[in-house]
Amino acid sequence: MKFKNIIKLSVLCFAFGNLSAQNPWPKATNTAQPWTRWWWMGSAVDEKGLDKQLTTLSKAGFGGVEIVPIYGAKGFENKYINYLSPEWMKMLQFTTDKAKSLKMGVDMAVGTGWPIGGPQVDEQDAATKMIVQTYSIQPNEKFSEKIVLKDEKQKNLKATKLDIVTAYNEKNEAVVLTDKVTQDGTLNWKPTSGKWTIYAVFVGKTLQKVKRAAPGGDGYTLDHFSPDATKDYLKTFDKAFGNSNYGIRSFFNDSYEVYGADWTADFKEQFKKRRGYDLSQYIKYLVSDDESEIAGRIKSDYRETMSELILHNFTENFTNWAHSKNSKNTNQAHGSPGNLLDLYAAVDIPESETFGSTKFDIQGLRRNLEDINTKEIPDINMLKFASSAANITGKTLISNESFTWLTEHFKTSWSQVKPEAEQIFLSGINHIFYHGTTYTPADVQFPGWLFYASTNFVPENSLWPNIKGLNSYVERTQSVLQSGKSDNEILMYWPIYDQWASAKGKDMAFKIHNIEKWLHPTVFYENLEKLGKSGYSLDMISDKMIGEAKFENQNIQVSKNGGSYKVLIIPQLNYFSELTLKNILNLAQNGASVIFQSEPKDVPGFFEFEKRRNELQSLWAKIPFQQDGNLKSATFGKGRIVLSSDVEKALEYLKIEREKLTDTGLKFVRRKFDGGKYYYIVNHTSKEINQNIPLNFIGKQVALMNPENGDFGVAEAQNNSVKVQLKSGESLIIKASETPDNSISKWKYIEKTEAPIVLNQPWQLTFKDGGPELPKSKTLNKLQPWTNFTEDSSTQSFSGTGVYTTSFKLNKKADDFVLKFDKLYESAKVIINGQDAGIVWSLPFEINVGKYLKKGKNTIQIEVSNLMANKIRYMDQNKIQWRNYHEINFVNIDYKPFDASNWKVQPSGLDGEIQLIPVYFSK
């Protein structure tokens, strides 16, 4: 039978025999547990509610919360607390004290809603933009018009000013006229001949305000490019916090979503200081639609300057400020008009973000197209910008805002969350923040207060009884991924100047929502995809990081605490800094291996570019390439430089080994610790893996560790390979050590299975913990979902827990028994003979139960929890008010008004067969 082949491939390791063994799992701290973003709606919190929710989160396996105040619920205005007011700080202190007693951590956003801003941001410090007005002057014409702002909203602002005035004739000859304009806008200049166009650039304001702000948090968004604006903004927190950090572990800043901010008050001066020339003379090429080479060079310099300003004036100041409070900081760099790698590296905890749903080939995984946003697909390579920066610079934690809009509201199961979490882990991230949990007062009924764009990790969720299964899985996995150091062998340069050199547009923000424009079409991305699938592990590196790198102990290393790498790859590109090439040649001189996919064509930017181009070509000419088969190679000092369009062939030439385990379709991420390595391996294919897989390192002992249930044992390993049994959707941790631990028992491999015992006798179905009302109990001759019983209308609207109970006789002996569910909607707690046998919440829906069974009569209870969807559908059909919020009220996955009244009833409970399968282990 088909089940026999499926079961014998299962990863199963059983705890008996391991009780006296030294546990190979790293000691877990609260950072290994998942944390959750915690929205305080209207900051209408009180001690009773805070105490209750923190305690509930702790019991469910959460290690911490991240406070983000947002807009409030209607009808509770008298309970709103102004952000950072003495009462608000009192609630914060209560929160951190309570969390500490529960061994939880607390982070908080430096602002309400997003992006960063608030009432302390005056006009001067508000997000800034350039406003361009053009004028024409005919030959011999006296220019009588005043050069003043025409925008009615802008001209009365105190912070606006005229910044640059430059005239161009038909030959593109420029005359800077800024000092020829008087206070009232009169231009004291008259051309002698020809037609001229005047470009006047004013310093203006975007007038954008904080989105979804909480009471006391409304105001302009911040000018990220001004050091004074950043310092002024943080003074408000200095006043509220005084000399204390109030127990905050890390201060958090959300993704950069400032629109139209493309200037700052002293940009012209900063540009000249950093790029070496006055932008005024070339302003036309920046602000017009000219797509000439010179326009591309000017815009490249402009974008590089923007990048440096946000790095030095906002990000580094934010980090220094957090340190002054004896806290850390967390920052989402994506969306910024800057080099993401440098911005992520400048903070303590770089944070990425996943938005939308990934298509996996896992057998049985539900992915209904009507419940997902098909335009938003998370990309593992986008996540690697954050993990790369952290790995290279030695940050121990890399976080992620996880599962935003994973599916439509109320339709996300824990089994759908798991592979998305695994994709995050495979990118190198090791500190997940669920998105998220909304604070709800103790007396607010189902579904509680809810955020409009999240997966609902709230105690009111009908799936909550089994969230500990997911959280324990995340905790075990993160305990490993937070141990030791990243063990990636390749550095790949991000050719950001190819992006910056585009003559189209002006400012350039690297968002997660437009990677199809700036990331996917590049050869850089093509390399990331191909090398990852081939089994290479890599991190991305910036020009700044290359400048800080050294070659020591036969590896390239940027930071003492960071990763060490065997090779640096420069992918095919057009623009390359001569300074970066010089730094790379210094690395090679000292022994580094470098691969160029192509010869750099040109230098970026405008200043003395012909001189710098000659320098680039001169440096390149120093590399004594020789033809060697299909590639060129050169010995350079103690190192090796290879030129090849085929990066994989170049890696083979340099004897950089890939992990061949990916040939099976398995995915992995690798960590190293003193005396060994961890491999976290995931099977996202539709097939079962039952074979020896090759590893580049196996040491003297290999232990297998199951992150879903915590079991472990010594594996069968030989000839640099390890025997693995993984079903579709399962994962495994391999610990390869130089020092054997003889106290650990052998891993229990399944050798064979016998015909299953089908539990097809009558079942009793009862209900508990849910509503709007409990359906009537039923005796079932055939196992089926409770939603099949349409004659009882309460079964169609019930969200909660249904309990399936039966008894059976067991006369067979086996090494163990696997309880296998055909279809489970959505998760279940299994109780056998009165003993808790565990939670079934992820694919494949199986659990080993042998140690709970006895000869003769056995009783089994399966407590199944379904989605919130059916109850929400009922509430909308009956017009029961549950969403009533200020600001954005509630929207569906397409950002249209939410209405569940026309939803189909979501199947709930058990369906198909439940089998008890005897398994036998190899001896």
UniProtKB/TrEMBL annotation:
Record-level Gene Ontology MF annotations: hydrolase activity, hydrolyzing O-glycosyl compounds
Entry keywords, A to Z: Hydrolase, Signal
Signal peptide, first to last residue: 1-21
Coiled coil location: none
Highest taxon in the source lineage: Bacteria
Sequence ranges assigned to domain Beta-mannosidase-like galactose-binding in this UniProt record: 803-885
Pfam family, one: Glyco_hydro_106
NCBIfam families, alphabetized: rhamnoside_JR
Protein name: Glycosyl hydrolases family 2, sugar binding domain
Lineage, top ranks: Bacteria, Pseudomonadati, Bacteroidota, Flavobacteriia, Flavobacteriales
